[in-house]
Amino acid sequence: MNIDPVAALDAALKAHGLLTNRTSQGIAIQGSDLLVSAAIVRVEKHPNARIVQLDVRARSQRLANGWLIESFGGVGPDESKAVEEAFGKFLAGGPGS
User: Fold this and answer.
1) Which residues contact 78 (CB under 8 A, 6 or more apart)?
2) Contact at 8 Å (CB) between 58 and 36?
3) pLDDT given at position 96
4) Sequence-ordered list of residues with C-beta below 8 angstroms from that of 1, at least 6 positions apart, any chain
5) 76: buried, middle or exposed (CB in 10 Å: 19+, 13-18, 0-12)?
6) Could you tell me the end-to-end alpha-carbon distance of the chain, in angstroms, rounded to an integer?
7) What is the pLDDT of residues 45-58, one digit of tens each?
8) Could you report the per-residue pLDDT of 3-30, keeping only the tens digit for each?
9) Are 2 and 80 within 8 A, CB to CB?
10) Domain coordinates of the chain in residue numbers?
11) In the prediction, which pLDDT does 1 show?
12) Which residue in 6, 25, 84, 97 has its CB near the most CB atoms, within 10 A?
């Protein structure tokens, strides 16, 4: 896998003008209590494809310090391409993107 989901998420947040700090638990958004992270939590290997599940997580006091998790699937000829597709869906705002 060539894409680091946390690094890609950090870059996307910065591209939207947010100031961030990487922590051991994810990415802290400066000026807020919001902590976000991303990880590939599932990989399925098939003869001609890889399927991945990307989870993007957010935690805040406003969420009673629980995690809000949004999952995105990706399919590709290899794991790297599947991760790219899943992250692209996250950036586009939904599964059908």
Assistant:
1) 50
2) yes
3) 53
4) 40, 79, 80, 83
5) middle
6) 22
7) 999 999 999 999 99
8) 899 999 999 999 999 999 999 999 999 9
9) yes
10) 5-92
11) 55
12) 84
* Overall residue count recorded for the chain in this entry: 97
Task: Report the DSSP pairing between strands 67-76 and 49-59.
Answer: antiparallel
**Which tokens in the block code for residue 31?**
């000026």
pLDDT of residue 16: 93
CA 55 to chain CA centroid, nearest Å: 5
Virtual torsion, Cα 82, 83, 89, 93, nearest 10 deg: 160
Contact 69, 55 (CB under 8 A): yes
41: amino acid identity, one letter: V
Q: Is the pLDDT of residue 34 over 60?
A: yes
Q: Which residue has the tokens 């290997």?
A: 45
Give dist(CA 18, CA 33) in Å, integer.
13
- At 65-96, the pLDDT tens digits run 789 999 999 999 999 999 999 999 999 986 55
